Each structure stands twice: as C-alpha cells, then as structure tokens.
Amino acid sequence: MSKKYSILYVDDEISNLHIFKNTFRRNYNIYTAETAQEGLRILDQEKIDLILTDQRMPEISGVEFLKSVMVKYPQPYRILITAYTDFEALKDAVNEAKIFQYIQKPWEEKEIQHVIDSALDMYRLKQKNIELTEKLKESNEELIRINQELIELDRLKFQFLNIISHELRTPLNGLIGATTLFKMKFRDEDFTKYEELFYILETSSKRLEHFLLLTERITAFKAKRYQLQPDVFHIGDLIHESVKALQDKSLKKNISFLYDLKDEGNCYADKELIEVCIKELIDNAIKYSHQGGTILIRSFCREKKRIFEVIDQGQGFPDIVLKHKYKAFITSDEFGELGTGLDLALINLIVEAHEGNIDICNNPGGGATVRIVF
C-alpha cells in the first residue's frame, strides 16, 4: 500500500482552508492553520511532507514563514500561493525560501493537484536518495570496519608465521645436520637397509625448509622490509642454472626440457628474487608433470618487456587455485598432497615488486602455462 502523504496548508482565510481540505482529504492527510504560529505548532507535532502557504497574511508573509520553517524543517517541499503579482516576493521565495513552485489565486483543482503531485514525486525521490545514501554510508562504514579487521588479521597471521618460521629454523637445522651425520656413519655399513628412511628424513626436511623459506620471504614482503637489490645478469644462464639445480627431481620422473630462448640479453632486476620465481615455476611444473613428460621453457622480449613462460603437459591447476590466484594458504588435495599456494603467492609478490604481472591457465590439450611479464 502506498504511503498517504501529509500536507500542511496555511492561510488566514478560513474558507480557503475548508475548500482545500474538502478537496484533497481523500488522497492526503490534510492539516490546516490560520496563522504561521499555528502552522509551526503543527510542524512540531506532525511529520509533514509538503507545505503550502498564502503569501499575504496579517502577521507574517508566506515567504517569511517558509524561510523560518526551512531552518528547523528543511525536508518538506514548499509551495507559495499568492493572489498578487509580487515579483520581489517571488524572488525571495525562490532564492531564500527555496520553494518548489508558486500558484496564483484563485487556484483550480486540476492545476494545484498537478503541482502537488509533482512536488510529492520530487519529495519521494529526495527521501529515497537520502535513505539510500544513509544505507550506503552504513555499508561503507561496515566495509571499512571489516577491511580493517582483515588487515589486522592478515598482519597477525604473517607475524605469527614469522615467529613460527624463526622458532622452527634452529631445530630443523639440527635435524638436517643429524641426518647428514647418520648417513656418514651408516655409509660404511649396510646402507641399503636405511636408504628409504634417510630419503624420508631428507625429503621431509627439505620440504619443511622450503616452506620456512617461502614464509620468511612472504612475511618480509608483507611487512615491506625487503628492499630490491637490482643487478645485471644473463636470463638464459639463470634459466639453465635453475634447471640444473632441480636435476635430481626431474631425473626421478624422467622429465625432459625443451627451450625456446630468444633475445637472451642481460636483465636488470633483483637476480636472487628472479631466480626464486624461475625455480619455483620449474619445480611446480616438474611436481605436477606425468612420468616421462616434457616441459617447455620460453623466454623472449616484446615491446621492451621480458616474457618468461613455463609450459607443462601435466595435470594442470586445480579449480581452487585458478579461483584464488596468488592467494596464500589455499588448500587442495586433488593431487594427493597438501598445497598452500605459498609459491604462487611469493612469485606474485616478487613480480609486483618489479612492476610486472603474472598469469596462469590450463592448456586446452592438458597441462598448464605460467607466464610472467617484467
């Protein structure tokens, strides 16, 4: 059901008030007042949406009345009714009382009905806009509050990670050292009996060390404590060095590499960080490639930008990774092991620090492509 608007009509001629009320009482809540003071009392007591007032009244003019109303009650729309062509009064009504329109006496029902409807339409739109603005303000305030909480949670998360990483580093180094000493001790005896056990110890230690390294670097970036240290290096050499460093992993899966390296000029960037990117991408490609698969590594220049791509024929990225690109601590067991998303998160931070961008996608024929543009 539509709202029944409330209208106040102020006029010192009682007959005009009666006619107005009888004419419009079915459509609106009509309030009438013979004086400006009575009109103000009604405004104090009732919610009025539209005010009509006669200009020529004995105590105060209609314009002066509307000006006083506007100070305390600015929301209702205002209409001036006058029987005289008083241009000064109309000018004041428009400029100072901010009237919606003026009507000349004697008014006709159709004419005044049209003006009232137009005024209430504008009033309704204005009130709706005020409501929406208030709701938007509340939503923005809530969004700011939630965002601040998320920022704080993010800060605490990485602060906690930094502490955990630091606390785990010492016992991990002890575990790696002890494993190495045990290998030396048993190498002269029946080493084959313990080979699998040492393999588990070494791979678990390396995996944990890799995790700690990633978290340390990510927390350093998040805390803005890492300063880029750019240097000149040869990109082709860096790619071959990265592949060689991962040779043990690739040999176990009988992975072969194809290279498409063009414009192998020197690069100016943080060599250590770029090496981290390249190694992480190649390591991921090896991890998710099928036994005996092939990995294509491309590097070329286009429009003064260095583009680096790693293309494999493996299982591709799970949907959760594609949905939450470069977000740390996403989990997926689609490949039979836990993933954290830390590697892509770190790569993204490194690329952004070099004002570049990264994109990942699954290939139509199988496998995945990761492209970095510096």
Which CATH top level class of the largest domain fits? Answer: Alpha Beta
Overall mean confidence score, pLDDT? 81
Secondary-structure element series: EHEHEHEHEHHEHHEEHEEHHEE
Strand content: 15-25%
Helical region count?
Answer: 11
Rounded to the nearest angstrom, the radius of gyration is: 39 Å
CATH superfamily of the largest domain: Histidine kinase-like ATPase, C-terminal domain
Overall spatial form: elongated
| Secondary structural class | alpha/beta
Helix content: 40-55%
CATH topology assignment of the largest domain = Heat Shock Protein 90
Q: Which residues sit in consecutive blocks of at least 5 with pLDDT less than 50?
A: 332-340
Major β-sheet annotation: 5 strands, parallel
Distance from N terminus to C terminus (CA atoms, Å) equals: 61 Å
Keywords:
single chain; 374 residues; alpha/beta; Rossmann fold; Helix Hairpins; Heat Shock Protein 90; 5-stranded parallel sheet; 5-stranded mixed sheet; 18% strand; elongated
Write up this protein:
- The protein has helices at residues 14-24, 36-45, 62-72, 87-95, 109-187, 195-222, 235-245, 247-252, 271-287, 319-323, 342-353, and strands at residues 6-10, 29-33, 50-54, 77-82, 101-104, 231-234, 256-261, 266-269, 294-302, 305-312, 357-362, 368-373.
- The protein is an alpha/beta fold.
- It has three domains: 6-107, Response regulator (Rossmann fold); 147-222, Helix Hairpins; 231-373, 2-Layer Sandwich (Heat Shock Protein 90).
- A five-stranded parallel sheet has the order 2-1-3-4-5, with helices on both faces.
- Helix 5 (109-187) packs antiparallel against helix 6, helix 7 crosses helix 9 and helix 9 (271-287) packs antiparallel against helix 11 (342-353).
- The radius of gyration is 39 Å and the shape is elongated.
- The chain starts with 5 loop residues before the first strand and ends with a strand.
- The model is unreliable at 332-340 (pLDDT under 50).
